[in-house]
Please model this.
Amino acid sequence: MPIPLMINAEVKAALEGGKPVVALESTLITHGLPYPKNVETALAMEAAVRESAAVPATIAILKGKITVGISPADIEALAQMPAHEVRKCSRRDLAIAIARGCDGATTVASTMIIAHMAGIKIFATGGIGGVHRGQPHDVSADLSEFGKTPVTVVSSGAKSILDLPLTLEVLETNGVPILGYQTDVLPAFYSARTELPIDQRIESAAEAAAVIRASADIGARNGILVAAPVPPDKELDAATAEAAIARATQEAEAAGVGGKDITPYVLNRVSELTDGASMAANIALLINNARVAGEIALELSRL
Ligand code: PSU
Ligand code: MN
Model:
């Protein structure tokens, strides 16, 4: 049985010709950013991938069909849908969304799965999921996906609304190398630095591509995290970010927000508490990560 994947013609031609392709996710469109910033950012990420001479493939589930490379009109339609009408699909949701013919937005975990099915090796997002603060058993399915799906994800670390030290421990358990893109420390999503270690600093896209190639050569099944800091002009001061995150996290708990609603709730509340500064940082890092992913995909296609 062939895998039921719809791959758009441009992406298909690029994959068949060994040209660079970058996967992009759709949860940040439906649950991560408000309209119209979500559609503007998704299109700007696609443009940034193209500027790096790679082909973007934004992934979503449209009426139960896994679609690799949705159109700008599909992006606009998803962006306008109320979040509760689009299923936030992690690994566990994929089969359900397909069987029931739902519209679904893909998280980091499910975008990795679909990218791998399509033969795409690089994927850009903002911040991966992780271990939630004060809830050490709320571990994003993103982390276990990294242990079993060989896709490289460019992100600004894990979202700093999470418990970052515990998140690093779970990544280590899953055998996931973290490459710091022009940095020696883990970025903190909205701000550029933490005191937390990464596994290897790299200076260039070519150095990232060399590690990805070596990982494939040894038949490694795990993914790789490339951690790229937020651009300095949009960085949020660490103390401001932390105060807003601490308050938003407490409010989420008091309001009884749980499970997959926590991340969207806290992202939105932090943005309100920082007068939109956190959202500006989030958008800037998303576009930058798309550009970096495009450059890595290009270098990888040359190896
Ligand atoms: N990066 C962003 N905004 C987001 C996300 C990533 O800048 O909204 C999404 C990704 O889809 C990621 C999800 O998989 O947040 C994590 O959700 P959870 O904590 O429920 O696993
Ligand atoms: Mn979670």
In short: The longest strand covers residues 55-62.
